[in-house]
């Protein structure tokens, strides 16, 4: 019998993808006051990276994150997302965080 260290890995991969798409898309122009308040509270780069770090602890690899960011930047199915105001800057911010995170020295303790 083999042990599955990450039984919900697929769910965390999908959660990571939804989180990145939600952050890169940003807040819509016709958002309600409640949506604006929630976006101000939970929609920033720090909270987005915290949620993705949680997914990393549950089996998502840095390569999967970077390949998904690459597909957002290049795949035609994400063209609508790329054309929203500020989406490229937000995409660059997430990429910068995970590129720098991937180049850190491994921790032995």
Question: Layout of SSEs?
Answer:
Layout: H1 9-25, H2 33-42, H3 45-57, H4 62-74, H5 79-82, H6 87-102
Helix pairs in contact: 1-3, 1-4, 1-6, 4-6
Structure description:
The chain is an all-alpha fold and 109 residues long. It contains six helices and no strands. It has helices spanning 9-25, 33-42, 45-57, 62-74, 79-82, 87-102.
Beta strands, count: 0
- Percent helix: 55-70%
How would a crystallographer describe the biggest sheet?
none
Overall shape = globular
Query: Alpha-carbon distance between the termini?
Result: 30 Å
How many structural domains are formed by the residues? Answer: 1
- Strand share of the residues? under 5%
* Secondary structure tally, helices: 6
Uncertain stretches: 105-109
Which structural class do you get from the secondary structure elements? Answer: mainly alpha
Task: Offer a few descriptive terms.
single chain, 109 residues, mainly alpha, 6 helices, 0% strand, globular, disordered C terminus
Characterize this entry briefly.
With 109 residues, this protein is mainly α.
